[in-house]
Amino acid sequence: MIEFLFAPLEYSFMLRALVGSALVGVMCPLVGAYVVTRSLAFIGDALAHAVLPGMVLGFMVGINPTLAAVPTGVSVAMLVRFLSRRAGLSADTTIGILFAAMFALGLMMMSMVDTITIDVEDLLLGQILAISPAGIYISLAITGLVILGLFLFHHWLMFTSFDPVGSQVIGRRTHVVDYVLLALLALVIVIGIQAAGVVLVMAMLVIPAATAYLLAGRFVSIMLTAAALGMAASVTGLYLSFHFNLPAGPAMTLVATGIFLLVASFRRRVLA
Amino acid sequence: MSHIPYCNDASMSLQDVTVELDGYMALSNVTFDVDAGTLMGVVGPNGAGKSTLFNAIAGLLPVRQGSVTLNRVDPRRGELAYVPQRDSVNWRFPVNVMDVVMMGRCCRLGWLRRPGRKDRELVKTCLCRVGLWDQRTAPMTELSGGQRQRVFVARALAQEASVLLLDEAFSGVDAGAREILVEVLQALRDEGRIVLLSTHDLNNLSRRFDQVLCLNRHVCACGAPSQVLTPEVMKELYGFQFSMNGEG
């Protein structure tokens, strides 16, 4: 058992991967608690796909793709809210349009680049074992930003999540709060993509938070439980990946899903 | 126990308020005044514009013509509280009674300040006021319809609101709980607050409310229940004539 736990730590890439997966495991579920309780899963998935052009652009101009994904993710998140309000379309419709368009743009850009090699599988499924020191620093900086945002806006986020109409009467701040939440979502997705890729980041965003939703009562407890479950799933997935030569992103996803299925088999949340 | 701050001489005036929704007139030339210390019932059939009226007063819908004047009431400071219909609330979001009432302090806290001892004391006072302090840790989903309405009223008090708008507050609330809610609202009225409550329940209107606004996209009648609850007004509201038991 000791060998199982400590053998991977002899490799510096595994140490980085461990820090990276722990950050993903904690941060995605913290914001994921809002995703689950506000039914934002579709926008989470869409944002994960929509950052693809930013990452490809990063490869093209020689910037760290994670860093390049940040403005893309935040801009698309703002655009979803803005277009929905401006055009009077439902958020789902706007998300559907932007999600498809941005993903298509990313794929188009990839097909146009022939001077550098972009591993499509790494982008789509993540490659936490290849995370660079710069990737870790960027993830740490984003983590700090997201925690600050969640702390500062906690009460307003709770109010607008529970009673959007009642909170809107008090001021026009609800729009600001919605934009902030979408920006935080975009930021954790950028961290998550490194570990789980564009396709599976959704898993870290939703599954630990959904599991915590079945286990805990109050919202803050759900956030903390989700973060603990997310970290357990991501670190366990990473170890399984190392010892059994499995892809890390899918291993993390399946561990998180296993925990969810176990909990869902004996817990059910009663709604009003 | 801490004092609940509010303004006891607020007033409200609507002049020729017209609201258009998706190309049709949801409200036409609505004019009425409400003084401090008034408990007003807003009645009318489905689609009469009761929620639209509340949304217009709360600033959630633009007024195409006319004006809504709130004297000594600043909605941005929480002095106007809106208790929405049950369907507008995200019941999937897990909060308990105390959390909801503390939300009323948001506008006073601003972005950076966290709730302090005074905020917690005020929340306690507000919950005691509506008789729900013992339920403070209960999840909202475990409360009855009437208790939920009282939690929202407590939140309005925590907001330091002097005007309360309650949309379909009796919906899903049993008869006993309605009476408790009315008693709480009457006490707030007695302190000088303005309370507007829309309802489909036409029983005991004259006992419950000081004034009744009969709305069917326009004001059919507005005034003391004994003056407005006439067979003619009921016919204009609901399309057929019937007498109000124990009213008028």
Please, could you describe this protein's structure?
- With 272 residues, chain A is mainly α.
- Chain A has a single domain, classed as ABC transporter involved in vitamin B12 uptake, BtuC.
- Chain A is built from 13 helices and no strands.
- In chain A, helix 5 crosses helix 11 and helix 12 crosses helix 13.
- Chain A is globular and about 60 Å long.
- The termini of chain A are far apart.
- Chain B starts with 10 loop residues before the first strand and ends in a 10-residue tail after the last helix.
- In chain B, a hairpin with a 2-residue loop joins strand 1 and strand 2.
- The longest helix of chain B is centred in the C-terminal third of the chain and has 16 residues.
- Chain B has nine helices and nine strands.
- Chain B has one domain: Rossmann fold, CATH 3.40.50.
- The radius of gyration of chain B is 18 Å and the shape is globular.
- The interface between A and B is medium-sized, with 29 and 37 residues.
In a few lines, what is going on in this structure?
Helix content of chain A is 82%, strand content 0%.
